[in-house]
Amino acid sequence: MTVQAIPENPHFPGIYRRTADSSCVVAVAPRSFMSVPEVRAVLSELLEAPPHRFVFAVLHSGEGLEDDAVSDEVVAARKFHRMRSPEGPVESRLAERIHLTLPDTAVLSMTDDIKDLGGDSLLCLELSEAIADIWDVEIEPVDVFRVDSLAALAADVEAGR
Q1: How far is C-alpha 82 from the geometric centre of its chain's CA atoms?
Q2: Digit-coded pLDDT (tens) for 66-76
Q3: What is the pLDDT of residues 15-30, one digit of tens each?
Q4: Burial bucket for residue 2 (CB in 10 Å: 0-12, 13-18, 19+)
Q5: Is the terminal CB of the chain with fewer CB neighbours within 10 Å at N or C?
Q6: Distance between CA atoms of 112 and 62, rounded to whole angstroms?
Q7: CA distance 78 to 66
Q8: SS3 sequence, the chain?
């Protein structure tokens, strides 16, 4: 396993390794708060790889950038962010709505959850209201916050239709 440092950038230090299929496994430690879609966009540019070609973990204070942070064992054991594009009309429309709250360069994945988006009670309230307006489905803001992924939120919308 050959681990390399991410090229110097103002957003975060990090390490990565390429896999046999030319994908990247990455661990980063943001210097300031960035949403997961923002980190994904920066990594895509820095590593010159499309977002679906890497998985990454955001390390928190106290976690080190040692080589084992991107090992196969760690990837299997902890939450690494994986890319998945929207599938179907509900996921697509939900992603479009959420993208309004993100910087233009952010890369959203249906595996992201509200916390990955930097979500707070205001975002949950806005999404709850948008879901009611678009699909006439009532989902409480606290339930928006609790879903495991945007795909799961879309499934809840589908179930409520």
Answers
A1: 7
A2: 999 999 999 99
A3: 999 999 889 999 999 8
A4: exposed
A5: C
A6: 23
A7: 15
A8: CCCEECCCCCCCCEEEEECCCCCEEEEECCCCCCCHHHHHHHHHHHCCCCHHHEEEEECCCCCCCCHHHHCHHHHHHCCCECCCCCCHHHHHHHHHHHHCCCCCCCCCCCCCCCCCCCCCHHHHHHHHHHHHHHHCCCCCHHHHHHCCCHHHHHHHHHHHC
Query: What pLDDT, in 10s, does the model give residues 129-149?
Result: 999 999 999 999 999 999 999
Structure tokens given for 21: 């299929």
Place of tokens 């923002």: 38
Residue pair 71/77 in contact by the 8 Å Cβ criterion: no
Residues in the chain: 161
Q: Are 36 and 44 in contact (CB under 8 A)?
A: no
Q: Are 16 and 26 in contact (CB under 8 A)?
A: yes
Q: Which residues contact 152 (CB under 8 A, 6 or more apart)?
A: none
Confidence (pTM): 0.90
